[in-house]
What we know:
Elements: E1 37-41, H1 50-60, E2 64-67, E3 71-72, E4 81-82, H2 89-103, E5 106-110, H3 119-132, E6 136-139, H4 145-155, E7 158-162, H5 178-185, E8 192-197, H6 198-203, H7 208-214, E9 219-223, H8 247-256, E10 262-265, H9 275-289
Helix pairs in contact: 1-2, 1-9, 3-4, 7-8
Amino acid sequence: MKTLFLSSLTATAVVTVTLGAASLPPIPAEYKTGGFAIGCQAYTFNRFTAFEAIEKTAQAGGKIIEFFPGQKLSKENPDLKVEHSSPQVDEVVAKLQAKLAQHKIKAVNYGVVGIPNDEAGARKVFEFAKKLGLRAVTTESTESIDVIEKLVKEYNIGCGYHNHPRRADDANYKVWDPNYIAELVKGRDPRIGSAADTGHWTRSGVKPVEALKILKGRIISAHLKDLNEFGKGDAHDVPYGTGVSDAKGCLDELKAQGFAGNISIEYEYHWDNSVPEVKQCIDFVREYGKK
């Protein structure tokens, strides 16, 4: 696959925002490591329950977590799921909050979740986020941006557009391209932006640091990854600093932008025993913060 070179200097690509994602509620300092709020996307532990994902995040040294829809809550309550549309949503939230408090982990985000293009359906997502005290939600529902903008303003909860890899057989899938996201959110409420997945950019042949520059001021959250190969769909996660995605350069750029959102480690490799490598990623950020 050819490398896609993206210029952060083109008029159509650069997004200038005066308030940006910084207008969202800050993540308290006690949940930060090396200057960043870093922890796990629970999907890293999708073969386990949400309770186990919280435990494993704590074991790896993470202080924040991003949940995803549909994960079983716990071994004790296998019929309950982390799901905004669950009829037992209040019970799920109460149990999650107790488990999070036990391990001193803060829930900050939820996704990737489909947000319906109707207010009633979309509101369920934002109500769930409000009950959990989340800073933002993550989606790829570009068709729902008008409804999302209304609810972002009402709830003061951000929304980041996530990117999976480009699809050779689907020209209509555009969110992989940071230029597309920049144009999509241009002129919108500053709490709408990118949920930047640097691993999927790497798979798409997009240099992550260049993509972050294009989305300056609009990065709500990040799935920071380092992969073993560039421009290949089957590339896999490796600990930060050992791959080709320029993890340090990404941290440098996020720091320069004053990024205040969460960095979620979504480690999609060694599924059954990824905690040691997740810990290496968190340790990398901890050491970065000492320099």
